[in-house]
Fold each of these.
Amino acid sequence: MRAYNFCAGPAALPTAVLEKAQAELLDWHGKGLSIMEMSHRSSDYVAVAEKAEADLRKLMNIPENYKVLFLQGGASLQFSAIPLNLLGKNSKADYIHTGIWSEKALKEAKRYGDINVVEAGTSINGKLAITEQSTWNLSDDAAYVHYADNETIGGLQFAGIPETDKPLVCDFSSSILSAPLDVSKFGLIYAGAQKNIGPAGLTLVIIREDLLDQAKPEIPSILKYSDQAKNGSMVNTPSTYAWYLSGLVFEWLLENGGVDAMHKVNLEKAKLLYGYIDASDFYANPIAEANRSIMNVPFTLAKAELEKQFLKEAEANHLLNLAGHRSVGGMRASIYNAVPLEGVQALVNFMDDFAKRNA
Ligand SMILES: Cc1ncc(COP(=O)(O)O)c(C=O)c1O
């Protein structure tokens, strides 16, 4: 049987997608070979790659003046690629700091330019929150403004999109495709695939065309967005299998009502889990309501000494990967698109039973 997987990433994939990949694994569309064994330049593979892009464009309603790049190196390589590409003309940028991932991004950016860090984390009645934009000290001459929509470790998410006349650059690694998004508000969106898109090994970059040509001259061509755009993301051999599998996820999303339908279920899942945690004396979530992530739900137990037992019993109940990030401890349930409502219900049932037995 397949368990419910609450891993933050690499994360759950839709069973239907894995079944399709399994059926096609040895002999892709009667060609007598696996797609993994196919040249990335073959017409068959290029058609798969182009369909994945077209489906993603449909899902996210990506305007025509944006390029979609299928890259490697994870979101972490984008922490360097972004300043190297966008700081060419003006070496200043604003970085909004809300947690561990936005901090990693700004630390890398500091190697390449003059980075203005906006501390936007705060505490409201003992709960973590993101400050009002009116309190931020943004620069007049920044080349771009960077933030992370959803802090995967902290479980802290922006309630809306910041307003700026500068190109807005956002790490959507753990929230892309979870809710409708107005792509036209952004200069650049990036995301590692291994949470809400597909398997690890692929990184998406969606970039407005006018930002393509301001790279620093010393940038490696593999990191240069304009080179990747000109070459269909094939400056070198791309992560072909991850790209193909992500394409199957996009097809699955389209067949299941697209991002709007996912968002509706995601809200239901989040409401169920946060609602249960809030009503319980045994569990607690550290985030202020307005900034609670709908994808990553951290929680603690009233008796921290029971954490190991909680995880062991959860696993025996086919509820996997509920340990919090190693840097913060506690628990975390990641409830991405591929985790069904029934999975969250099973988790809540288990949590309730565990609490009653251990109160
Ligand atoms: C919000 C966010 N940004 C960046 C990363 C780093 O991604 P990668 O491991 O793909 O480099 C992660 C990974 O969990 C993440 O959650």
Amino acid sequence: MTPVPALPELRAEAFRLLSRGVADRRSAFHTPTLATIGPDGAPQLRTLVLRGFDPAARALRLHTDRRSAKWSSLAGDARAALHVYDPGAQIQLRLSGTASRHAEDEVADAAWFASQPGSRLCYSVSPGPGTPVPAPPAAPRADAGGRAHFGVLRLVFDRLEFLHLHHAGHRRARFAWGTDWVEETWLVP
Ligand SMILES: Cc1cc2nc3c(=O)[nH]c(=O)nc-3n(C[C@H](O)[C@H](O)[C@H](O)COP(=O)(O)O)c2cc1C
């Protein structure tokens, strides 16, 4: 029987999965679901590509269009959560924390210049994402001021829940970080 891992090992495994999500397009952790709170207080969910992870800062990097609903929702309420389920590994991660928005700064510049030309084209779409139109618009073929619409979300999480569906008994754990402490505990699944 596989031994039950210690909590710090489980935490390290969660961080490894997030790092793999950045590097491996086939990993389920490459396309998590981001939750924000709309101006009416209602939850909003959508898939995003996980672009970066800084384990020391517990910071995830995501890219989006500054004309999108999520960008304005985060201006009103910076709380955000992220969910991934990997059916192969039978692992679910749930993270929550605060997202900062980067538009015209070094963080956004670095992300823009490191991104593929094909990815940049999305930001040249006009009108902006979510605008009602009579028919689906053609994909932009050339950069038409995409940088002005490009933004980076930096989600620093202070809560992480790990759930592993396991034949010998499901394993659920919660990790929480404060300024100078980490709290970790098993939970009843
Ligand atoms: C596989 C996949 C990857 C996506 N990646 C991104 C992304 O990295 N950034 C983004 O803004 N939208 C991405 N989207 C589109 C979003 O899910 C969403 O439809 C869009 O951002 C508008 O969301 P909003 O109106 O809630 O702001 C992706 C969608 C899918 C299905």
